[in-house]
Each structure stands twice: as C-alpha cells, then as structure tokens.
Design a protein that fits this description.
Elements lengths: L1 H20 L2 H4 L15 H8 L3 H8 L8 H10 L4 H11 L16 H9 L4 E5 L5 E4 L1 H6 L10 H7 L1 H6 L3 H18 L4 H13 L1 H8 L8 E8 L3 E11 L7 E6 L5 H13 L1
Antiparallel strand pairs: 1-2, 1-5, 3-4, 4-5
Helix pairs in contact: 3-4, 3-5, 6-11, 9-11, 12-13
C-alpha cells in the first residue's frame, strides 16, 4: 500500500509539473475572462484536451485514481504534449503493478563487458550501472573524469556533490539535469529499489541544486549527446557521447566518448592517452 501511495503521489506531481509548463497558446486553448494567476494550463483545460471529465482528471492528480486505460493514458499524454521518454515514465507511474521487478542488490558487471570497455583505445569508455555507479571502463575513461583506475564512485554523487565536476563540465547545469532525469526514470522503473531511493534521498539532503532540479520532474534517457569538458590536463574537449544499453543486464550502460577525427579535441584526447602510457 505504501508503494502505491508513493507512486500515486509521483504521478500527480509529474502531471502538475507538465501542466504548469504548457501554456494555453502552445496547446491551442482559448483564454477568456480575468487574467490567469499562473501561466500553465488549468486542470479543466487538460481534462478538455484529453476528453475526460474534470472530476476524473482531478482524482488522478490527487492520487485517488490509478490503473488508467491505455486510451486515457494516450489522451493525457497527447494533451500535455509529452515526449517519448515522458510517455514511458507516465505509463510506469500509472501502472505500477505491471513493472517487472528486478534484483535490487549490488550490481556486478560481466567480465566480457569489462574486457570490451578496456579494449577500446581511441575513445574514453566507462560502464555505468542502473543507480549511476561507475562499474568499470578503460584508462582513458577514468582519466577523462579525473579518476584513478581503481576508483568506483557514484556518478550522480560526483555530479552534484563534487565541486570538481563544475570545473570539468562546460555546461554543468544541463548535464546535471540529464543526471536527475535519468534517476527519475530509473526510480519509476524500479520503485522498490531501496539503494536507489537512499541515493535520491542523500542527494536531496546534501545538494540544493539537485533538490531544485528534481522538483521539476525532468524525465529523459539520453543515449547520445555532445559533451564539452575543461580538462585540467589537456584543456578543452568536445566529445561525442554514445550510450549502449546492455539488454542482459537491465540498467547497465556502456558509454563511449570520442572526438571528431582531425579536430583539436581528437589531438588532445590522444595526448591524454599518451600521458597515461
């Protein structure tokens, strides 16, 4: 029962943040009468767009209604203009009984995956677990993060609690939002993961930035992007990040960071590797 109440509250909070972020102009809702107190949509406007009663939608936001039909989920997602990741998140929150439970203890990474990561030489490679624990990588991957090869920190803790990350990442705010977005999706995927809940709780207590970003309910699972670094040894790096999910180990990801051939970033990445040798 406690888990259901928590999931229902998460569902209501998520819907409220998305409703508040969508203006009447963006959704095509006509506005009449007195000035609006808030820029976002009202509950009755979302209900109208979704084709459900105001009473029913209000009950959903208040955590009093769950197990919505697929058609209602789709209608609400369309009304709020949710992106694909947000739709997955909404479905998980709305149907918690359909979540496939997984083992929630410490993670292990397969030796063959470790060998694959360590065999790459031209790209900085790391292996990250479902709770954003660093599970392994090659020497260049550790060096890119300013870590020794035997260190295994939690990447979310590094992002929000280690001041060095603010210096390392050129666009720290957007990267921090990505980290919180991933944790939000992970928490809806496995709501009974005690260690994940403890991680989120610790970040909420120790980082005001995490609390601020988390309150906005960001949701995304970015599998490719471009990251910029101010590396303390080799200087500015612009790297393409590509993420491969490991289907046999749900939540684990193999992440590659490489530079465009012929660029100064490629030269500096090679320089960093040569310094390690």
């Amino acid at each position: 029962m406690g888990e259901h109440r928590n999931t229902s509250q998460e569902l209501g909070d998520f819907l409220r943040t998305r409703r508040a972020a969508l203006t009447p102009q963006e959704s095509g809702v006509a506005t009449y009468g007195s000035p609006r107190r808030v820029p976002g949509l009202r509950r009755e406007e979302v209900a109208l767009l979704a084709g459900v009663s105001v009473n029913y939608y209000t009950r959903i936001e208040q955590g009093e209604s769950h197990q919505m039909s697929h058609s209602v989920l789709e209608s609400i997602a369309n009304a709020l203009q949710l992106d694909p990741d947000e739709r997955v998140h909404l479905a998980r929150l709305a149907r918690p009984t359909q979540i496939v439970r997984r083992r929630t203890g410490p993670e292990r990474v397969r030796e063959s995956v470790l060998a694959l990561a360590e065999s790459t030489s031209e790209q900085a490679t790391i292996i990250v677990g479902r709770r954003m624990d660093l599970l392994g990588g090659n020497r260049l991957g550790f060096a890119l993060l300013g870590l020794a090869p035997d260190q295994r920190p939690n990447m979310a803790k590094m992002m929000f609690l280690d001041p060095a990350m603010r210096d390392l990442l050129v666009h720290w705010e957007s990267e921090a939002r990505k980290a919180a977005s991933y944790l939000r999706m992970a928490s809806s995927d496995q709501p009974d993961d005690r260690l994940l809940a403890e991680l989120i709780g610790e970040l909420s207590i120790k980082s005001t930035e995490f609390t601020r970003i988390w309150a906005a309910h960001p949701v995304s699972e970015c599998l490719h992007s471009v990251r910029e670094y101010n590396h303390p040894v080799v200087g500015h790096l612009t790297l393409n990040e590509e993420t491969l999910r490991l289907p046999d180990d749900p939540g684990q990801r193999l992440i590659f960071h490489g530079a465009e051939p012929g660029t100064s970033s490629a030269e500096r990445l090679r320089l960093l590797d040569s310094l390690l040798a």
